[in-house]
Amino acid sequence: MSVFEILMLICFGAAWPFSVYKSYVSGTNDGKSILFLFTIFFGYACGIVHKFNYSHDGVIYLYAFNGALVFVDILLYCRNSRPGRRFS
């Protein structure tokens, strides 16, 4: 378990709740890229696979938590992209 890997995941993970909140409240996808979100999600998934296969430790929970936040942001992106969605 690397303290630097933990710090990296905490720093990256600190931004996702704000992004999810902005997507939920604003109802728009301004400044968002679905390709970027999928790329980040894929990176977290690769980190989880690596932890399962080579170095199973508690850091896997940080990867899973961050991946879950990105997945929620992807779902909100899809919700906000629906045609005919009414914004208030």
Structural class, from secondary structure content? Answer: mainly alpha
Number of helices: 3
Secondary-structure element order, as H and E? HHH
Low-confidence stretches: none
Number of strands: 0
Supply the number of structural domains.
Answer: 1
C-alpha-based Rg, rounded: 15 Å
Q: Which outline best applies?
A: elongated
Mean pLDDT: 92
Could you explain the architecture of this structure?
The protein has helices at 3-26, 34-53, 60-81. The protein is mostly helical. Helix 1 (3-26) packs parallel to helix 3 and helix 2 (34-53) runs antiparallel to helix 3 (60-81). The chain is elongated and about 45 Å long. The model has no long low-confidence stretch (mean pLDDT 92).
Structural topology:
Elements: H1 3-26, H2 34-53, H3 60-81
Brief characterization of the structure:
With 88 residues, the chain is mainly alpha-helical. The chain has helices at residues 3-26, 34-53, 60-81. The model has no long low-confidence stretch (mean pLDDT 92).
Keyphrases for this structure?
single chain, 0% strand, 88 residues, mainly alpha
